[in-house]
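User: Please fill in residues for this 370-position structure.
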């Protein structure tokens, strides 16, 4: 992958041919989509042609790297089944209509009898109003939609009809804003998807908000014990923007207001430009103050488009190590800068070594935020 108009340095396993370049056509019309394809030629030392190749190119985009801590509120599309549970029906028998119908943890209940469901309260009301009659559930499982028929049972203890499921319809927490585009006000954060802690399923977004947050304290990371940024939502009544997408590459949406004008703009770098060696991250570990901290990129992993573990990184900045022990929960999304360009974001920490973790390539996050 390359930026339009730039030469693409090939990453090889043979040091003696590390000077190979692909010359990429600069005639791509990128106005319709984020990435395009161009014809290029592989040349040894930029002179001797070897072969023609097709190269994916992305536009040269200027962004504002952030590093600010933000509060995240996500409301699910449908409700997420986190478990099925037996209860006692009016005949004194143990039952779980949902389990008997094949409903599993991780399923999303999108609708009941064709009525869209976006909260646990809505689900409970529609099921109870059915009065024991069979209902048709629209289920989303592994991105595939199907219908399941199930007959609710009356529970004397709750004095209502039930399916026998525990569901979740929202989540909230603190993360780090990676960047925003001043030309579109689109943002991206986290670098990894928001997933349910019980089912490990990624939340499907119905709506959500990004709000300001203040860091109050830090639980320092230790071997075997992940650390954490502890903070509060500081201005929930006046959100920073909307939350529109949640994917394996993080969350994204549109900003309605921001206070990041003091941050220095830079361009994004394609994954082919990322190298092992020195870099730095931007993050906030005290109130609302963003600072830069030195890291080392130890290995380029490039685990595919569905992975957020593209770079193995290590914190080398003594100030950050003293305060946090390395990477802690809440730092996900911290932008990674190398050679003056935004190359990625922090995504994971090693539980047994908080000084090390993973980062994601920025072109993946940009594709989703676009």
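Assistant: Residues filled in for all 370 positions:
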């Amino acid at each position: 992958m390359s930026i339009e108009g730039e030469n693409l340095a090939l990453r090889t396993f043979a040091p003696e041919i590390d000077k190979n370049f692909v010359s990429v056509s600069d005639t791509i019309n990128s106005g319709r989509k984020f990435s395009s394809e161009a014809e290029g030629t592989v040349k040894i030392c930029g002179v001797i042609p070897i072969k023609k190749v097709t190269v994916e190119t992305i536009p040269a985009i200027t962004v504002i790297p952030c590093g600010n801590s933000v509060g995240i509120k996500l409301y699910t599309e449908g409700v997420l089944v986190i478990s099925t549970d037996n209860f006692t029906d009016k005949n004194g028998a143990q039952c779980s209509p949902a389990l008997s119908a094949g409903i599993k943890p991780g399923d999303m209940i999108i609708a009941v009898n064709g009525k869209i469901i976006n909260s646990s309260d809505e689900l409970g009301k529609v099921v109870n109003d059915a009065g024991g009659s069979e209902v048709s559930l629209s289920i989303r499982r592994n991105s595939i939609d199907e219908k399941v028929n199930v007959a609710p049972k009356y529970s004397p203890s709750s004095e209502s009809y039930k399916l026998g499921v525990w569901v979740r319809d929202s989540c909230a927490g603190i993360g780090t804003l990676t960047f925003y585009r001043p030309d579109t006000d689109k943002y991206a954060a986290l670098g990894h998807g928001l997933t349910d802690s019980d089912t490990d399923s990624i939340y499907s977004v119905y709506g959500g908000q990004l709000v300001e947050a203040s860091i109050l304290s830090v639980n320092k990371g230790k071997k075997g014990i992940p650390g954490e940024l502890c903070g509060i939502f500081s201005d929930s009544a006046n959100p920073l923007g909307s939350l529109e997408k949640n994917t394996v590459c993080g969350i994204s949406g549109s900003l309605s207001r921001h206070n990041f004008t003091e941050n220095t703009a830079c361009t994004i770098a394609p994954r082919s430009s990322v190298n092992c060696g020195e870099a730095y991250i931007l993050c906030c570990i005290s109130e609302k103050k963003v600072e830069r901290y030195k890291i080392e990129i130890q290995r380029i992993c490039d685990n595919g488009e569905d992975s957020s573990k593209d770079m193995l990184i290590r914190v080398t900045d003594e100030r950050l190590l003293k305060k946090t022990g390395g990477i802690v929960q809440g730092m996900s999304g911290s932008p990674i800068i190398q050679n003056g360009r935004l190359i990625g974001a922090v995504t994971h920490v090693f539980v047994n070594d908080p000084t090390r973790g993973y980062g994601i390539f920025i072109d993946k996050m940009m594709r989703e935020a676009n």
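For context: Helices lie at 97-100, 120-129, 318-324, 362-369.
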